[in-house]
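Q: What would this chain look like folded?
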Amino acid sequence: MLKVDGVSYRYRDAAAPALRDVSLSIPAGGVYGLLGPNGAGKTTLISLLAGLLTAADGKISLNGQSLSEARAANPRAIALVPQDYAFYPMLTVAENLHFFAGVLSLNNHEIKAQSEDAIAFARLEQVVGKRAEQLSGGLRRRLNLAIGLLGRPQLLLLDEPTVGVDPQSRHFLLDAIAALPTAGTTVIYTSHYMEEVESICQRIAIVDQGRVLAEGSLADILQSPEAQLEIELDRPLPADIAERCAATPLDNFKFRLSFRSTAELPRLLDELAAAGCTVKRLSLGQQNLEQVFMSLTKRSLRD
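A: My prediction, written as C-alpha cells:
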C-alpha cells in the first residue's frame, strides 16, 4: 500500500503551496485514478512519488517503508511514464529498451528477458528494428509504456498515457493498463479523459488547488443524494428555476439541474409549461464522473 500522509509542497517563490496537507491511501493491486484541473497539484504529487521532488512536510510510505527506504531497498520499485515521450528518437525500439534496461542496472539475461516481455506486452514485435522517430503516435505511446515496465516496478505512475493517440490505440492501451495489477503492479493513472478513468480505475481522488476534494471507490464518488436531471428546452430556462435548481448550461438550450428528490419533478414540469417552455428531451439518473468533477471544482478539467 502507498500512503500519503499530510503532504504539503511549495515551490520556491510561489505565492501559494502546490499541495496542501494531502493524505491518500492507495491499495496495492489496482488502478488508482488521479483527477484535477491543470494546476491542481497532480504533477507535483506524481513528482514527489517518483522521487523527483522531496516533501518538506508530511510523509510518504510504500508497504510500510518510507519512500527513501523503499527506493534504497529496491531502486526499481517505482517507475514513471511521463506525458512527454521518454525515449531517444534516433534509436530503434530494441535499442531504446536495451539502453533503459541498462540504466536500471539489469544484467544481460534480465535485459534480454525483460525487453522481450515488454515488446510482447506492448505488441511491438513488428517494429523492433524501426527508429522511434518513425513510429506512429500510438506506437510511441506503447514504447513509452514498455520502457516504464522494465525493472518490473511495484508502482507504476502513468501521466496522461493516451494523449494524441487514435481510438484503436487508446482502446489497446487501456486494456493493457487495466491488466497490469494481475501481474502485481499497482498503477496510479492521471488523465484528462473521464471515460478512461471510469473504465479502468477502482478508486479515484479528485484534487484542486492542492487539496483533496474527494477520495474513494468510483461507486462512492458517483453516489449523490441529489437527483440529477438533464433537460433540453425550446428556449432559455427561466431564471428563478435556474437559480433554485443550480442549473448548469450544457449546450444551446440544454441544462443540467439538481434537486433533492424526484418527487419535485412534476412541479418542475408544471412550472416549465406555465412559462411556455416545451421539453424536447429529458433524462434522469445517476451522476457521471464529469458531473461530479464539475460540481466539486466548479470548472472544466481543461481550464
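Residues 108-121 form the longest helix (14 residues).
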